Structures are given as structure tokens and as C-alpha cells.
From TrEMBL, chain A:
Residues 93-300 form the ABC transmembrane type-1 domain. The keyword Endoplasmic reticulum does not apply. It is found in: Cell membrane. Belongs to the binding-protein-dependent transport system permease family. PROSITE patterns: ABC_TM1. This is Sugar ABC transporter permease.
Automatic annotation (TrEMBL), chain B:
This is ABC transporter substrate-binding protein. It comes from Nocardioides potassii. It comes from the Bacteria. The keyword Transport applies. InterPro entries: Bact_solute-bd_prot1, SBP. Keywords: Transport. Pfam families: SBP_bac_8 (PF13416). The keyword Transport applies. Belongs to the bacterial solute-binding protein 1 family.
Amino acid sequence: MTHLDEAPRSEKAVAPAQGREKKLPGRDRLTVITMVAIPLVLVVLLVWVPALLSVALSFGKWNGFGDIDTIEWVGVQNYKDIFTIYPAFWPAVQHNLIWLGFLFLFPTVLGMLLAVVLDREMRGSRFYQTAFYMPVVLSLALIGFIWQLFYSRDQGLINQVFHSEVDWYGDPDINLWAVLVATAWRHTGYIMLIYLAGLKGIDASLREAAAVDGANEVRTFFSVIFPVMRPINMVVVVIVVIESLRAFDLVWVINKGRNGLEVIGALVAQNVIGEATRYGFGSALAVIMMLISSVFITIYLRTVFREERQR
Amino acid sequence: MSRPLSTAIPRSTVATTAATRRSVLRGLGLGGLAVGGASLLAACGGDSGGGAASGSGATVKFGINEAEGAGAAHDRLAAIAQAYQKESGTKVEVNAVDHNTFQESINTYLQGTPDDVFTWFAGFRMAQFAENGLITDLSDEWPIDGLNDSFKQASTAADGKQYFVPISYYPWAVFYRKSVFEKNGWEAPTTNDDFMALMDDMQGKGITPFAFGDKDGWPAMGTFDILNMRLNGFDFHMSLMAGDEAWDGDEVKGVFDTWRKLLPYHQADPLGRTWQEAATAMGKGECGMYLLGTFVVDALGENGEDLDFFTFPELDSSIGSDALDAPIDGFCVAAAGKNQEAGKAMAKWLGSAAAADAGNNAADAPFIAANSGASTSTYSDLQKKSAEVVGAAANIAQFMDRDTNADFANTVMIPSIQAFLKNPDDIDGVTASIQEQANSIFG
């Protein structure tokens, strides 16, 4: 009894020291403040200030000559123009969405399948891993060039081999799909590697347990392995969404995002970098892109936080 | 985006290397837009002003749009800089920047700490800088010996003053293989009837009359330019480029309509073909002709011995055929440059025959000098003929993307012309869309 009485007392004695009101010693507080302040300043300066400036610029018309007072403020005219008379905008939104859907449907599933197959330690699996991962190392600019060798209408490999005359990069009904195949070629390896890492991290006893319970390979994967890889799946979802919103390099290399390859990122670039300097108009496009990304980011963060709370 | 005569690197490759992650970030609009690039070009030049303003002991900074290793184009400019240093005693500090980077950063460059003298193009883009006070008035240096009135005209901005000194140019014309024409007994056409007959004959023999590629977006501007100049005249063309004429009027619709009728004589599916690929098709004899600048030679990997050209024939006898695109390259003095006096003095010299000769003698491939006193001994036959043809032309345009607002040319005209090539029957739709966007940009 005395033993039991003592325990709560000692807890009480310790509790205030661990409570929320406890003050950190001076030096620790300073460290914490510095550690929070420096990233905060960086984020504010490098992300929020420019982002808000972009929003401000999007209400003006400015060709970049002269000082800031030469900006002509036009209200929502840029947005109105984008939605009504800019022929490239709506196709661009559509293409970004197709991009997103395609990346989920094909390369992600294929990457997962490859990971599962390669995880089985078959002969030469190292070689295949490297082969499938190779495209990821290449820049998208280089990938655009490599595929140009396949897709060129007059001199490309595909048309030469099949004696066809398909205008892979030029026909606006086909070129998006041609580009998506090139993207998938790279994206598959990336997803494969992430899943491969995830699969290696799974406790072997889970598989054994499933096997003892009489589950076959497919059942084991879908009922045991896949749910255990939930964090990996989350990462993949985020990567795919970001990759498809970021879609830019490849179409820029191919035709600067015109003629069937309009994506929002390329439209922003067309208007603000290079010789064209429609800073207001380009900023308005960038703001629209930021809003679309925010929707996805918000959904993702809410899911993550809800999970944290449930734990 | 017309290119200079002989950049060794194909344009597509240059674009490839330019589209890096950094441009992605800049493109996202989160990089503070214009501010970020300001130091890009300026950083390349050292900081060593001081000394005398000009003449012996002075220093002048010279920004050139060809990086070292870019071939003849760089070698010529470097040799010109050295020749000036030797002749005037002024020390010339060369700041060599890759062609595309230079062009894309020009705005921030001129508003930051630019070099005193820099390479640029004649036309609206030059005039726009003049209007915004970014380049220095050079009217005191004009006239320059050997540069005729049409060059003076091309160097003049809206206020009637000169802001530019030309050094070289190249014409856009219809190129063909001499051997192919000889074998088939064809001759360069002068009238519209000859022209149509020639194209029909080519088609009859299974040769596509015109090679055509517009994957890069700018080559088809050349076709629009020449058709507009032939159908509506040079003056209309220039005022259309300046935003003073309607794009949805009957004149422009007429241009697109003529183009639509000529399209069956062009290679199909131009939007997936680079200009290099189109040039190869002409080079191999699959196509009879190709409307392009003299840089067509670069894509063929030969010296152009078997190439010849003619100017686009007349389409309307009341208009004639005495106008053509011949982009002029040259120099401006930056208003923000430290050493204005030395810059002006150098700019004047750069227009001289001696400057052109210094460049041409030092490089494998010469340019066509603007100065009439320059030696033509290093010219190829093509260049000699180019000089003749341009000299005989009554009116010279610079090319759509140099003659009009760059915003308009790049973000409206390229997609619109491509939309027309995709669907040539919707002329009303394309011209209406161009006009709406022109209102928004020029408005």
C-alpha cells in the first residue's frame, strides 16, 4: 500500500516540470527561436513575398521597361482576357488534367508492377533495375531530344520502320499522347524505385504469416503488402500530382508548349521569359496555376493531418 | 526569331539547353519575375571603368550575343573587337554571352549594368528600346561612309533619330538546288503565271514544290510577311506590324486566303517539322524550293555551291515584287553604359568597311556586310547574289518578330499562324482571335 501511495506523489512532483508552462532556459529558447526564425524568413522572402508580388503584378500591364510606376493597373482585365480571348488557356487546363490522369493510370501502375516483379530477386534483377531507372537520371530536355529521334515525321525511327507518315509531334490530336509516352518512360522508373524501396522495407514475417494463413501471392499483395505501404502510396500520390502540374520541360523542348501541347506552366513561360514580356498577363496565369496547386496541396495536407490526429 | 546568318549550333539545340530547371522556376512566377535575371548578363563583365573617356588608355565594354565556341559568328565579332582595339588604342573588353540567353535577358540587361556597346537587331525591337530611353541617340555619328539611306532608315526610331549601326544582313528568299532545276529544265519564275506553272510542273513530276516546317513557330512568319508584302504592299505591312491596321480586315484575310490556296503546294504537316528537316527535304530533292533565310545553308552541311535563290515573285502587278525580308544585325550603345563617349566612337567605327573586313577575314564563313565599301572577296556566290538582290530591293522589312511588338509576335502570332496551318479553312476565326488579342496588347 505504501508503495502505491508513493507512486502518484512522485508523479505529481515531476509533472509540473514536464508541463506546458515550463520555461526553457535562456540559451535553449534562443536556439529554438533561431531555428524557427531562419527558415521562416527564408520561406517568407523566397516564397510568400514573390508569390504575393506575382498576385499584385497580375492586376497590371507591364512590359518590364522602366520603374514600377510604369505599371498600368488594369484590374481583372488579364484574368478576363485569359478566360475569354486567350485561345491557349482552356486546352492547357485540359492537357494538365489529362496528364494527371494518364500518370496515375499507366506509369504508376506499371511502376508498381515492375517493382513487385523485380523484388522477387530473379536473375539479372539488378540489371533491369538499372535499365528501368536510367531514364530518371536524364533531364527531361534530353529525353525530349531522344524521343525526337523516334518521333520525327520524316527522319524518325518509328515512321522509318513502319513506313508510316504519322506526324507524332506536329499533329495536335496525337502529340500530347506521344509526349505522355515519353514522360511515362521516365516516370515509370521513378515510381518503380520508390515502391522497390518500400517493398524492401516490409517485414518478411508478414509475408510468412499470410502464407501460413493460405493466402496466394496476389491476395497477399493486395490484402497485406499494399495496405502496409500506405506511407509510400501517399508519397507517390503527391509526386504524381506535382509532376503533372509541373509538366513543362518536355513540351517546352518540343515546341515551347504550342500546337496541342499547351500546358499552364508553358503558357506562363511563354509570356514572361524569353523575348515576350507580358509580365502582368503571365503573372495572372501563374496565379491561376498557384490556385490550382493549392487545392491539391490543401487536400493532401488535410489528409495527412487527420491521420496524425487519429493516431 | 530570325537567326543570324551562320550560327553553327542549330536553333533547336540552343532552345534545348536553355530550358533548364531554372527557367522552370522563373516561369512559375515565384522568382520575383524580372528582378531575378538582372545580374545574369551584367555578372559576366568585369568592373574596370576609369581612365580616359575615349582614345588611347580608355576602356570600352562590348557585349556580344555569340558565346565563345559558337563558330564563325563569334570569331567575327571577336576579331572586330581586336581590330578596333588595335586601331584606336581603346581597350575593348568583350563580354560574350550565348545567343538565346542574350536575347531573352535583354530587358533586364539594359536596365541593369550593361556593356557600353552591344550587338542587336534593327526594327521595332530597337525602336522600342529607343522610345524607353534604354539606348543612346547616335544621330551625331550618322551619316556613316558606305551605309546607304535604306540602312539609315532601318537605324532610325520613331523620333527620327538614329539609334543603331548596321553591320550585316541576310535576305529571305526562295532557295532551290541548281542541279535539280537544271535536270528538269526549270527556271526561276518572275511572274505569278510562271510561278504557278512551275509549281504545277513540280507536282506533276512528283516533287513537292515547297519544303515547309513550322515546329519552331517562327519560320512560317516569313511566309506571312512575303505574302502580305506582295498582296498589300510594304507600307501596309509595316503599319500592320506597328498595330495600326486591322488584323480581321479584308487585307489580312486575303493574305491567309492566298496562303490557303498555296498550302497544297507545300509539304504536309508542317507543325511537326523543324526548319532543318524541311531544308534537308529540299536538299535531297524531295522538295523543289524552300522559302527561308540564307542560313538554310547551315542545315545542309555544305557550302551552298549547288544552291541558288530568287525573290518571291509578284502576285499583284500593281504592287510588284520589290520588297523583301532582310533582317539587319548591328550595334547599339546602351544608355546605362558607363563610357558613353567611347561607346559612340566605337559604334561609328563598327559601321565602317574596315570593321566588316576585319570580321570577314578572321572567320571561315563571312557575313554580308552592310557597308558598300567592304571587300566581297571572301563571299560565296550565294552571298554575292544576296548583296545584289537586297541592294536592288526598294523596301526592306526586318521579319515579323523584329518588326512588331515581341509580346505580340511570340504569344499571339506564332500560335495563331499554327492554328491557321492546322485548320486553313477557319480564316475568320483566326483573324478575329488575332484582332481581339492585338487589342489587348497594343490597346
